[in-house]
């Protein structure tokens, strides 16, 4: 039986393992951390609280991730929310962009006009500007990688207020960079999905923590189907022989060998694993042209409930762009102390990187209290800040062309990960799409 070595136990590595096992190929997955899940992982701290790498929502337009979740038996752990984007503004002023149950793009047109977030001229400019992504194909949208979202917005005469009040927060939530830095391509891609499929923009959250509700069940599925999972084992180098990979060297000095190799690590880690001699090949050298962005995920435990809303919120008026009370959205692991556990993602994170965790926690609490005045009457029991210096690859203009296909020029080496070439942006869906593509190539290679 052919055997494949997979480096990286995030969604891309795990989905690759599942797809290869389905094809009757043995897998050995090597993950450097003690927990699986990578940027979607969670773990339990000394107090017994579940800590997350990042706040995550699952969109209905995730056309490969949702079937994958069904296949491994975790789809029902997603709780779908009301189809509404909630915008939090200072002083407790909340705006609902509600998508009614009518076909797309009409439901989006209603959501973006039937609200008091925008002025009339902002609403009209937004609708007319977005129309090009509704009628454009995905191939047309790929050509938009030569400009920033802001340049695209100006070119399409969408009012500045629309970016300031909404789209900048969405850029920060999706890619952790603002409208001036983000490529127009990923934003136009989501507009395209949202405008062509009625429920594409509806999202859900997990009913508990990722480790309990996704990664433990996926790990069990893999082991049950004969796969080998090795956590707490770091790969240090890919070793070559005769124009292919000979094995993966591990931190303990041993060499693991297989018939094919899939590197499903983030781009900065993949670079560290590859021999520098490979940089003479443009395919590999391009990996050095992709940059990463930092993020900080903050969790705040309060002594009482500070909201009754079971949904996530977006905001342009805080150091974070997306947040939610997980005691309500994901109660299984977060509603156990009789109060809210509000989680938020600080973006952009670079300006705050030098601050201490307690300063970052206090900054988030203060900003949250401006959006939700109820927070002023609550006591903060505990706050944590989880830093990821190299989180997503930086989705800036011009970066897309450097994202590699999953099949490398070395016959038995394949890449996977949200940053490799696939239709979607860097996301959980992108990670699973990359896994399917890598697994297809491996199956083809192994015959
Ligand atoms: C704060 C935050 C919020 C997010 N919110 C959303 C969201 O709402 N919706 C969404 O769709 N996406 C979201 N994302 C993006 C999503 O989490 C990622 O796109 C996805 O999880 C990437 O999966 P991956 O497998 O490609 O990479 P990773 O999750 O990074 O997995 C790579 C794995 O490789 C391992 N590894 C690295 N080097 C080695 C080595 N040398 N040896 C062994 N193992 C190694 C790592 O430890 C890691 O487990 C968010 C990300 C963050 C950080």
Mean pLDDT: 96
Cα radius of gyration in angstroms: 22 Å
% residues in beta strands: 15-25%
What is the tally of helical segments?
Answer: 15
Sheet with the most strands? 7 strands, mixed
Q: Indicate the CATH class of the largest domain.
A: Alpha Beta
Ions, cofactors and other bound molecules: flavin-adenine dinucleotide
Task: Give the count of structural domains.
Answer: 3
What is the overall silhouette?
globular
Structural classification: alpha/beta
Question: Could you list the spans in which at least 5 consecutive residues all have pLDDT below 50?
Answer: none
Percentage of residues assigned to helices: 25-40%
Jot down its keywords:
single chain, 447 residues, alpha/beta, FAD/NAD(P)-binding domain, Polyamine Oxidase, Chain A, domain 2, Guanine Nucleotide Dissociation Inhibitor, domain 1, seven-stranded mixed sheet, five-stranded parallel sheet, 15 helices, 34% helix, globular, binds flavin-adenine dinucleotide
Structure description:
This protein has helices at 11-22, 65-71, 106-113, 120-135, 138-142, 149-155, 160-175, 184-196, 210-224, 267-273, 282-285, 326-329, 331-334, 357-371, 428-446, and strands at 3-7, 26-31, 42-44, 50-52, 58-59, 78-80, 84-89, 93-98, 203-206, 228-231, 235-241, 244-250, 255-256, 260-263, 295-302, 312-314, 320-325, 341-346, 380-388, 413-415. 34% of the residues lie in helices and 22% in strands. The chain folds into 3 domains: 3-32 and 232-291 and 403-446, FAD/NAD(P)-binding domain; 41-99 and 202-207 and 294-389, Polyamine Oxidase, Chain A, domain 2; 102-200, Guanine Nucleotide Dissociation Inhibitor, domain 1 (Orthogonal Bundle). The chain is globular and about 65 Å long. The protein has 15 helices and 20 strands. Strand 12 (244-250) and strand 13 form a beta hairpin. The protein starts with a strand and ends with a helix. The structure holds flavin-adenine dinucleotide. Flavin-adenine dinucleotide is lined by residues 7-13, 30-33, 38-40, 53-57, 234-235, 264-266, 269, 273, 295, 297, 345, 388, 391, 417-418, 426-431. Residues 7-13, 30-33, 38-40, 53-57, 234-235, 264-266, 269, 273, 295, 297, 345, 388, 391, 417-418, 426-431 line the site of flavin-adenine dinucleotide (FAD).
